[in-house]
Design a protein that fits this description.
hpI Integrase, Chain A; DNA polymerase, domain 1; about 5% strand; three-stranded antiparallel β-sheet; mainly alpha; 13 helices
Length: about 300
């Protein structure tokens, strides 16, 4: 399957350079194509990408379904296949795109759990502030919730991108796109405490001088570490919901909209290209929607 390896390398470069996708998105797309090549080997089909037909792709999807993959995962794999064949078509490697007639499974929008303000306070209250990592973790959770950041945006946050005098932080989001996000007084205060009293005592590793949140060895925190910190805080607080860093981002957006924030403003703060993506964060209960219409609609 050397031919596949060559095409996959080209596809990876295309996603990074031309599509400007994040490393996580690139890895997901590449993984989907690798999975297709693995299926061909298992099925004993010595086919190049040019020889793949719609029927082959349908058989591949049937195979991953039998492996127990959910409809959501299948939809993501199909998205990866479509991106791969778009690349092959642009490079004149294929004349026809077999994914054009490939249908994605119907999936409902799965809304993540939302934390109430009380639950967020309970989680933060479980942090042991007598330990250096406790103060750091409090600053991180307040920043996650106060600014609605993605976990990758949090771990990559730089000191030089903090503009407290102006009330903003600069965030590097998906596709290396920058945006300015307002920062509230609580998150600003906790970051300042961390910068003044905790971070100066951490040994700095070369290359991490400008990274805001560091582990005890002076390196940038990993995404996995943020997940672990949040799950442990939820466990200590007795919260049974499925909690992740994204739960804080989702709660940030939901609480803003429930408080009357404009959806376009929330879209800007979250860094969404499309307003339809932002709408996922507004699963407001019917009574709230009804009261909003009664309050603002001219015919109400």
């Amino acid at each position: 399957m050397l031919v596949w390896q060559s095409y996959i390398r080209g596809f990876e470069a295309y996603l990074k350079l031309e599509r400007s996708l994040s490393q996580n998105s690139v890895e997901a797309y590449v993984h989907d194509v690798v999975k297709l090549s693995q299926y061909l080997e298992i099925a004993d089909l010595s086919l190049t990408p040019e020889q793949i037909s719609l029927k082959h792709l349908q058989d591949f999807l049937k195979w991953i379904t039998e492996l127990g993959m959910t409809a959501r995962t299948q939809a993501r794999v199909i998205s990866g296949m479509k991106a791969f064949y778009k690349y092959l078509f642009l490079e004149n490697i294929v004349a026809l795109d077999p994914t054009e007639m490939l249908e994605s499974p119907k999936i409902g929008r799965k809304l993540p759990d939302t934390l109430s303000i009380e639950e967020i306070n309970q989680m933060i209250a479980t942090l042991d502030l007598s330990k250096p990592e406790g103060g750091r973790n409090k600053a991180m959770l307040e920043t996650l919730y106060g600014c609605g950041l993605r976990v990758t945006e949090l771990v990559n946050l730089q000191i030089s991108n903090l503009f407290f005098n102006e009330g903003f932080i600069r965030v590097v989001g998906k596709g290396d796109k920058e945006r300015l996000v307002p920062i509230g007084s609580v998150a600003e205060k906790q970051i300042s405490i961390y910068l003044d009293t905790i971070r100066p005592h951490v040994p700095l590793v070369k290359g991490s001088e400008d990274v805001l949140f560091l582990n005890r060895r002076g390196r940038k925190l990993t995404r996995v570490m943020i997940f672990t910190i949040i799950k442990e805080a939820a466990l200590r607080a007795g919260i049974k919901k499925r909690i992740s860093p994204h739960t804080f981002r989702h709660s940030f957006a939901t609480h803003l909209v429930e408080g009357g924030a404009d959806l376009r403003a929330v879209q800007e703060m979250l860094g969404h290209e499309s307003i339809t993506t932002t709408e996922i964060y507004t699963h407001l209960d019917r009574e709230y929607l009804r009261s909003t219409i009664l309050q603002f609609h001219p015919r109400s």
